[in-house]
Design goal:
By secondary structure, this protein is of the alpha+beta class. 66% of the residues lie in helices and 6% in strands. Strand 3 and strand 4 form a beta hairpin.
Length: 269
């Protein structure tokens, strides 16, 4: 989609090859920046603080035991001083992973429920879901940016006038594609996010051998209406439960599948 957008942009300006390659290189640089720095940005936004074993031995041991069972290196552990019940994982690979839980989660879940949530987050790390979600979000953002630049150029002038006059139909198709492509990119990104949540649920249940722990935790999370204070649309997809609430119009535009469906699937395992 990015290369096609670049080609259409180049068609308008009279240099298809340069713009197609330029769009591709731009997406690579954009993705590379996110790959190395997205975890730091997310942690800065969340306001979470790193802890050591002495700060919360129970939480540390729970993560440590699950990592041994999953064959994962020990991630860094952070706590958000937030009463909402939520958690997320970030980091580009298992060696650079971070698990973040809220204070509300620690105060309100039983040991088996907390273990289920931690197993879910560690499964995201094991399955490289964070890397996939980051690239999906970044590339969708790149599509939006390129499409926006193209549409602004079309409506505010510029470009190769002779080429524009001789390719009216193509330009019309290009405008239509530029309008639709951000929508399509976002739908793809959100679909990926929902499917990886299902995968993390099943992988977490496999890790703990106790699906009811995560199912019970998700029930408590679904009841909790406390908002997460430090969150944005860019980071909401990382959390085990959408901290911004579900979409009332359609699941097609939601970062997470319905919690009721996730609980049902866990209890059918």
């Amino acid at each position: 989609m990015i290369i096609v957008l670049g080609y259409i942009f180049g068609l308008y300006f009279g240099d298809t090859y340069t713009f197609a390659i330029g769009a591709f290189v731009f997406s690579l640089l954009y993705s590379g920046t996110a790959y190395f720095f997205s975890d730091k940005v997310v942690l800065a936004i969340s306001g979470a603080k790193q802890i050591e074993k002495k700060d919360n031995p129970q939480l540390y041991r729970a993560v440590e035991n699950l990592c041994i069972g999953a064959g994962l290196p020990m991630p860094k552990i952070y706590i958000m001083e937030d009463k909402a019940l939520n958690a997320f994982a970030t980091g580009r690979d298992p060696k650079h992973a971070v698990v973040v839980v809220t204070r509300g989660l620690l105060n309100n879940l039983e040991d088996e429920e907390l273990e289920g949530v931690l197993a879910h987050e560690l499964s995201h790390i094991q399955n490289y879901d964070i890397r996939i979600a980051t690239f999906a979000a970044v590339l969708a953002g790149a599509v939006v940016m390129i499409a926006d630049i193209f549409l602004r150029s079309v409506f505010w002038g510029g470009g190769n006038r002779g080429r524009r006059d001789g390719a009216g139909v193509l330009i019309f198709i290009g405008v239509a594609f530029a309008i639709l492509s951000p929508f399509i990119a976002q739908v793809i990104r959100l679909s990926i996010s929902r499917q990886r949540e299902y995968l993390a649920d099943s992988s977490g249940a496999l890790l703990t051998r106790y699906p009811e722990g995560l199912a019970s935790a998700l029930e408590k999370l679904s009841i909790d209406k406390s908002p997460v204070r430090n969150v944005s649309n860019a980071t909401a997809h990382l959390y085990i439960k959408n901290p911004l609430g579900g979409n009332p119009i359609s699941g097609l535009f939601s970062t997470h599948p319905p919690i009721e469906d996730r609980i049902r699937r866990l209890r059918e395992i």
